[in-house]
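Quick review question:
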């Protein structure tokens, strides 16, 4: 097959033809996106270990602990709100270049010890970058993946996010003797800067090219994504999906046609965080010290071990999501979340906490995190890319993530005060109830999208939550 020439005035790299067209592109693009996930995970988890040392250096009150921890989440809401417009106007690849540079800059600036107000402002901007990444990266992955691999590649992103969290905590543990929170927070600037270079060589997604009327670029990129398949029927389906209607407007999501899908993604996003995932992550060393694990270094180490065990859930999800489908991991994983939170509630219900209760807490949170990442923690990225047609895919991702970040902000800001005033038994009991509600919601509403094309999934939502006859 001869290689397509790029349109006049456009570089061969931009047209997606810098490499031989017979080389599959989807896996390479996903690898770059996964490194972004690694950086995202590191930046999300780094505050967990650094907070123990920041608390002493800056003499932080409970309120300031809540502010410094949750300000990233507030910034993420802003990033998720502006992400769809950037992704649609500038392109998926260009937006990923911007967020990679943002990760590098703001991570480096967070290592500058100029006081609590400076750190708060920088972490706000870092949060904007995180929010932007959570909108763009899953869309980038879903639009490059083939139908047979989309679930696996989507969960691979979550695996790297989890690996980044573990890496951040191991870094904090290794540096516990130096109490160098500056290095802990700033270290991720290096990989963020490095990932900009390969991004410069990638094309944009076929759907974005089609959205902009660049048919030849879309065909060239589709050939590189799946050299074994004829790209023209696939492009015809994409163009049919894009035909008619406006592109990327939030208000279209709330029309009657998309109401069911919109309700699903907003509620899904809310349950992912209101059930305690990031809240427990941010405060896990503090939680383990309260539960009976003595010493800063030990509490950081067991936090890292729990997150390492959590990665097992991601791996299991990757192995089964394209064989079992989406629903079974959702049900099993969310049930485990309920069990994990109930275990934690029992730990704190005891009149005193010892080393034994500390290790029981480790077991409880391990069960919670394995369940979370086996189910909703991994599959949120799959559903983010699947729930809406191409022209609404970015705004659909943003709606899910705005809901996700709002719940995260509520839980993260409130948790230190609730833990201190009402105790751990009450706090984790509430998380258990919310996880049970999430289980019932997902059982009722989550579609099984295994093996379905993105266009078929659109038909499911258009048909009132029923699959159309083949």
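Suggested answer, residue by residue:
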């Amino acid at each position: 097959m001869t290689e397509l020439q790029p349109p006049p005035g456009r570089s061969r790299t931009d047209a997606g033809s810098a490499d031989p067209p017979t080389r599959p592109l989807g896996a390479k693009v996903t690898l770059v996106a996964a490194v972004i996930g690694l950086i995202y995970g590191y930046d999300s988890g780094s505050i967990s270990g650094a907070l123990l040392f920041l608390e002493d250096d800056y003499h932080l009150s409970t309120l300031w602990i809540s502010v410094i921890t949750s300000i990233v989440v507030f910034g993420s809401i802003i990033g998720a709100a502006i992400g769809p417009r950037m992704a649609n106007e500038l392109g998926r690849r260009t937006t990923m270049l911007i967020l990679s540079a943002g990760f590098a800059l703001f991570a480096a600036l967070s290592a500058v010890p100029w006081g609590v107000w400076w750190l708060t402002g920088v972490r706000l901007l870092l949060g904007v970058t995180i929010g932007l990444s959570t909108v763009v990266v899953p869309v980038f992955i879903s639009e490059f993946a083939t139908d047979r691999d989309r679930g696996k590649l989507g969960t691979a992103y979550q695996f790297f996010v989890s690996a980044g969290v573990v890496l951040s905590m191991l870094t904090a543990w290794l540096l516990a003797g130096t109490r160098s929170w500056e290095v802990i927070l700033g270290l991720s600037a290096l990989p963020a800067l490095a990932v900009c270079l390969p991004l410069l060589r990638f094309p944009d997604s076929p759907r974005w090219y089609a959205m902009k009327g660049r048919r030849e670029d879309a065909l060239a990129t589709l050939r590189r994504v799946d050299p074994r398949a004829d790209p023209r029927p696939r492009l015809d389906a994409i163009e049919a999906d894009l035909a008619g209607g406006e592109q990327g407007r939030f208000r279209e999501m709330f029309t009657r046609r998309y109401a069911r899908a919109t309700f699903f993604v907003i509620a899904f996003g809310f349950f992912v965080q209101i059930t305690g995932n990031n809240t427990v992550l941010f405060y896990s060393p503090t939680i383990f010290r309260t539960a009976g694990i003595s010493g800063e270094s030990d509490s950081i180490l067991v936090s890292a071990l729990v997150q390492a065990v959590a990665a097992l859930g991601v791996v299991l999800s990757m192995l089964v999501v394209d064989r079992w489908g989406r629903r079974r991991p959702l049900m099993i994983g969310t049930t485990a979340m309920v069990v994990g939170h109930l275990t934690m509630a029992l730990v704190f219900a005891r009149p005193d906490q010892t080393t034994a209760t500390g290790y029981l807490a480790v077991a409880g949170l391990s069960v919670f995190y394995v369940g979370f990442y086996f189910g909703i923690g991994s599959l949120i990225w799959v559903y983010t890319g699947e729930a809406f047609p191409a022209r609404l895919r970015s705004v659909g991702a943003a709606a899910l993530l705005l809901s996700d970040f709002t719940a995260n902000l509520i839980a993260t800001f409130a948790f230190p005060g609730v833990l201190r005033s009402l105790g751990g038994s009450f706090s984790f009991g509430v998380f258990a109830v919310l996880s049970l509600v999430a289980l019932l919601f997902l059982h009722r509403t989550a579609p099984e999208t295994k093996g379905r094309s993105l266009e078929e999934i659109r038909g499911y939502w258009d048909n009132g939550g029923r699959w159309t006859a083949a």
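Why it works: The chain has a mean pLDDT of 83. The radius of gyration is 22 Å.
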